[in-house]
Design brief:
Elements (H helix, E strand, L loop, with lengths): L5 E2 L11 E14 L2 E7 L4 E7 L5 H8 L6 E10 L7 E12 L16 H6 L1 H4 L3 H22 L4 E2 L5 E2 L11 E3 L5 E4 L4 H11 L1 E9 L12 E10 L3 H22 L1 H7 L3 H7 L17 H4 L14 E3 H13 L15 H9 L5 E4 L12 E2 L2 E5 L1 E6 L4 E8 L4 H10 L8 H5 L8 E7 H9 L20
Parallel strand pairs: 1-2, 4-6, 7-11, 13-14
Antiparallel strand pairs: 2-3, 2-5, 3-4, 5-6, 8-10, 9-10, 11-12, 12-19, 14-17, 15-16, 17-18, 18-19
Bound molecules: 4-amino-1,4-dioxobutan-2-aminium adenosine-5'-monophosphate and magnesium ion.
Length: 473
């Protein structure tokens, strides 16, 4: 392998006019008589090579002419600026060495033609190599980095909870169960929340970031059985402060993605101005021109969306319900929303379509929310909780709440929900030894990636998706 001037495609601007060696794969090949146009990729990008028969040794031309796609190679050539090239450069190829030639009998299965999604998921280990999938994974990495960075730079301590747990956090029907020595059972965690409530009371402001598991039998475009969740938990924080925290957090993530990934977002096909509107750049109306907007009496109430244009709109459950009733009466949604029920996917889509920014819906009926949520002192049938709905119909990306801080109330909640009291004794201890108001939320990384990249299914947001009917590859 030539050792001189090894470069990556992403760094070619620093090598203009030089002869460099790239290490990668043959992504595509076009021939036009005595000219070859191979496209190389190396993980950092793609670049087109130019190979005139007359300008290169015969062996180089012949090797490339018949080369199969995705063969691995090193290629040496001179970097030439070309304003028409997507990367801004082309490579005048001088030499090529094949590391492994893909056999003619077994060509790379993913071609530039359209493939069905089942075929692509079955070949996910190879599909990842295509530019759009690589771009999504780069954006995912930045979303994860920015999410952790927001807490790391704001005084939070990362405290990772166990993945093997003795009890449920979010409802017992969704647990993956496994044997745990001597007839004991263990469950894969659904959320680190209960544990980070303990670390929050030790350290003040904490977060956790790791894989979580839900044995939900839901086959929707938003559900995975294994997904990554980042969860902050803060002592002495109440619901209003939690909403501010979620808003600052989302704003930081979107800002960071826009700073670093405009080219990737273009490859993915994201409508970038819609993303810019979230952080207040070139705000635009959320609804299509001519579409009916939300009624004036609701606009006035949505957390200052008119008075404070940079704030995410905040709606109580009751206000959101009223908005849906109004939409139904005007024929804008198909089914009425029943007061007391959770919002369905079409309800969430309608609500989010009324705003250019994520919408924070707070104070749901306690009856449809988790046992650990603090009741609203102004109306104890409501929980001090929040769901953040992403714009453009991407649905819930964040769920959180203020936590019950009274020992007696929490104990009766555990009993009402038929949860095993013994397993929760340690959790109740947190209300016995210096209980304080505290709050937190969880954001599913894949839901955030789906929204920020504009993908209609979460299966493309994670390297290897685990869903109800797929655990291969
Ligand atoms: O709303 P959830 O269930 O809330 C909790 O787990 C809380 N204990 C979090 C907390 O307060 N610390 O889940 C939180 C988020 C959802 O808003 C969604 O983004 C994501 O996790 N999520 C899923 N993502 C993909 N597939 C699934 N099956 C998901 N279930 C939840
Ligand atoms: Mg939720």
């Amino acid at each position: 392998m030539p050792s001189t001037n090894i470069a990556t495609i992403a760094s070619l601007a620093a090598h203009e006019g030089q002869t460099v060696t790239l290490r990668g794969w043959l992504y595509n090949l076009r021939a036009s008589g005595k000219l070859l146009f191979p496209i190389f990729r190396d993980g950092t990008g793609t670049i087109q090579g130019i190979v005139p028969k007359a300008a290169v040794p015969e062996a180089v031309f012949d090797t490339l002419k018949n080369l199969t796609l995705e063969s691995s190679l090193t290629v040496t050539g001179k970097v030439r600026a070309d304003s028409r090239a997507p990367s801004g450069f082309e490579l005048d190829v001088e030499d090529v060495h094949i590391l492994q030639r893909v056999p003619d009998e077994t060509p790379f299965p993913i071609t530039l033609k359209e493939h069905g999604v089942d075929f692509l998921m079955e070949h996910r280990h190879l599909w990842l190599r295509t530019p759009r999938q690589s771009a999504i994974l780069r954006v995912r990495a930045t979303i994860m980095r920015a999410a952790a960075e927001y807490f790391d730079t704001n005084g939070f301590i990362r405290t990772d909870p166990p993945i093997l747990t003795p009890n449920a956090c979010e409802g017992t029907s969704e647990l993956f169960e496994m044997d745990y020595f001597d007839d004991d059972k263990a469950y894969l965690t659904q959320s680190g929340q209960l544990y980070i409530e303990a670390t929050a009371l030790a350290l003040g402001k904490v977060y956790s970031f790791g894989p979580t598991f839900r044995a939900e039998k839901s086959k929707t475009r938003r559900h995975l059985t294994e997904f990554w969740m980042i969860e902050p938990e803060v002592a002495f924080l109440e619901l209003d402060g939690l909403l501010n925290l979620a808003e600052g957090f989302i704003t930081h993530i979107v800002t960071t993605v826009l700073q670093h990934h405009r080219a990737d977002l273009k490859v993915i096909g994201r409508d970038i101005p819609k993303l810019e509107a979230v952080i207040g750049i070139s705000p635009e109306p959320a609804t299509e021109p001519g579409a009916p907007s939300s009624p004036a009496h609701l606009q006035a109430k949505v957390g200052g969306s008119t008075a404070e244009p940079n704030r995410f709109p905040r709606l109580s459950y009751d206000e959101a319900h009223a908005m849906l009733e109004d939409a139904y009466s005007r024929g804008l949604i198909e089914n009425p929303h029943k007061y007391g029920d959770d919002f369905g996917s079409p309800d969430e889509t309608y609500i989010s379509s009324q705003f250019a920014k994520p919408v924070m819906i707070h104070r749901y009926p306690a009856a449809i929310k988790a046992f650990y949520m603090q009741p609203d002192p102004a109306d104890p049938t409501k929980a001090l909780c929040v769901d953040v709905l992403a714009p453009e119909g991407y649905g819930e990306i964040i769920g959180g709440s203020q936590r019950v801080d009274s020992y007696d109330l929490l104990k009766s909640r555990i009993e009402e929900h038929s949860l095993p009291l013994a397993a929760f004794q340690w959790y109740l201890d947190l209300r016995k030894y210096g209980s304080v108001p505290h709050s937190g939320f969880g954001m599913g990384i894949e839901r955030a990636v789906a929204w920020i990249c504009g993908l209609d299914h979460v299966r493309e947001t994670i390297p290897f998706a685990r869903t109800l009917n797929r655990i291969y590859p």
